[in-house]
Amino acid sequence: MRSWRGVFLLILTRAVCEALYPGPDEGWQVYTSVADVEGKCVCTVVAPAQTPCSRDPRNRQLRHLTERVQNVTQSMELLDLRTSRDLQYVRDSEPLVRGVEARVRTANSNPRSLSPKGFQDLKRSVSQLLPLLPVLQQYRADAALLLDLKEEVRNLSLALATIQEELGAYDYEELQHRVITLQTRLQSCMNKLGCGRLTGISNPMTVRASGSRFGSWMMDAIIPSSDNRVWSMDGYFKGRRVLEYRTMGDFIKGQNFVVHILPYPWAGTGHVVYNGSLYYNKHQSNVVVQYHLRQRRVLLQRSLAEAGYNNTFPYSWGGWSDIDLMADETGLWAAHSSLARGGSLTLSRLDPGTLEVLRSWDTGFPKRSAGEAFLICGTLYVTNSHLAGAKVHFAYHTSTGSYEYADVAFHNQYAHLSMLDYNPRERALYAWNNGHQVLYNVTLFHVVHGGGGGGGPGEA
Ligand SMILES: *[C@@H]1O[C@H](CO)[C@@H](O)[C@H](O)[C@H]1NC(C)=O
Ligand SMILES: *[C@@H]1O[C@H](CO)[C@@H](O)[C@H](O)[C@H]1NC(C)=O
Ligand SMILES: *[C@@H]1O[C@H](CO)[C@@H](O)[C@H](O)[C@H]1NC(C)=O
Ligand SMILES: *[C@@H]1O[C@H](CO)[C@@H](O)[C@H](O)[C@H]1NC(C)=O
Ligand SMILES: *[C@@H]1O[C@H](CO)[C@@H](O)[C@H](O)[C@H]1NC(C)=O
């Protein structure tokens, strides 16, 4: 690119330099800028191309395309990271299956080596394990698809680099079409690989120790990943101060933050940031408030009809945690309960634009006995305690309206959880653990059997 751009050294007075400072929109870029001994400003400016090419509208379109390919590449890297993590899980379970299968085959050819009871046991474990095989195959197919996409992006990047050198040599429309197709395919690939059943929670990673024993911290659940802001809301009772950090790095160091003072105080720790807005439960009410974080104002508030509040149906740790707002890959949700529901944990899907309840599910799980709850791919996971030894032990699938008991252990390192939420964008669990801000990775598995949940490819 440099080759068809002129490089100029300009020496001007400071005032003129600033006045002439050309915007990047015009293709000008200030390369370096220093003040010399006489106080003059020295700017090295990379001027836009002086060739007719720069006026070619395709030039701008090309830059746009290049950026999109870069974006796709970034998403791809993210996806690759996730897939390899899940793939490890698959690799770990595959020998198990094969091992059992081999034992059966041996036993089959030499029946006398096994007692009848042992034989039946083995047969049963095989039939339990067999559904894993198509899952493994699916994973291999997914990984292969990813490799395909990667190669395509590489090809496209090459094509773009070529076209930048000899503009016009390529069919622009064709190139654009390929980029769009690629984006669509990547999107569906990501959605497919992103969803599944929770099978594992990693060791915790303590990001920071800050605030009181109870609180909430989060990143946006769906906004594009270039927005790395982190929010922290200390306390559960009548709080109004929201700290906004520019990046996770800033949050870790406790620097570069701005403060939002909410017009209405909050209750509990069940807040969520979704698509640029903070959704929270207004103190001493069942009103859900939508506060826009850039516009710094309340956009909406609406009562969550029927939902109990004021510490009537909190999680097991109390703390006015009656209403727990959360997000997953599929949208915005609220977990709550009421007398009418007999204290049963109820999950409602909310319209993020109006806060209306679109649909509710009664999970049958007593809300006051739940430690915390979070949602992944339309399945609600409930922990049995907020104290040491807590584990995920109940799962409710909104896709089928059915529940099952689960047994997914995790390390509750500081022994008091007042918030546990899944962030679909980061694919991680965010926890407030006794004044520590903690992250967990999750392993999600495609579902092939047993009552749905998730929307994995094996379900159909
Ligand atoms: C690339 O991604 C960034 C951040 O997500 C976004 O602001 C930008 O508009 C995207 N560019 C294109 C061309 O899609
Ligand atoms: C990428 O380019 C190579 C070499 O030109 C070609 O063989 C391959 O099929 C291309 N891959 C895709 C996915 O278009
Ligand atoms: C997020 O907000 C933007 C406007 O701010 C809107 O266009 C978009 O539809 C929203 N996305 C979702 C998933 O609600
Ligand atoms: C909420 O509970 C407090 C006591 O904890 C009580 O004083 C207050 O009146 C209650 N508010 C509502 C709206 O029920
Ligand atoms: C989650 O996985 C990513 C990628 O392997 C890793 O960089 C990150 O540290 C992990 N986080 C936790 C909390 O384990």
Automatic annotation (TrEMBL):
Localization, UniProt: Secreted; Synapse
Gene from which the chain derives: LOC105909541
Sections of the chain in a coiled coil: 146-192
GO biological process terms on file: signal transduction
UniProt keywords, alphabetically: Coiled coil, Disulfide bond, Glycoprotein, Secreted, Signal, Synapse
Cysteines engaged in disulfide bonds, as pairs: C195-C377
Organism: Clupea harengus (Atlantic herring)
Pfam families: Noelin-1 (PF12308), OLF (PF02191)
Keyword presence, Methyltransferase: no
Main location (coarse class): secreted
Lineage: Eukaryota, Metazoa, Chordata, Craniata, Vertebrata
Region forming the signal peptide: 1-19
UniProt name for this protein: Noelin-2-like isoform X2
The Olfactomedin-like domain, residue ranges: 194-446
InterPro entries: Noelin_dom, Olfac-like_dom, Olfactomedin-like_domain
GO cellular component: extracellular space; synapse
Domain of life where this protein originates: Eukaryota
Keyword check for Lipid biosynthesis: no
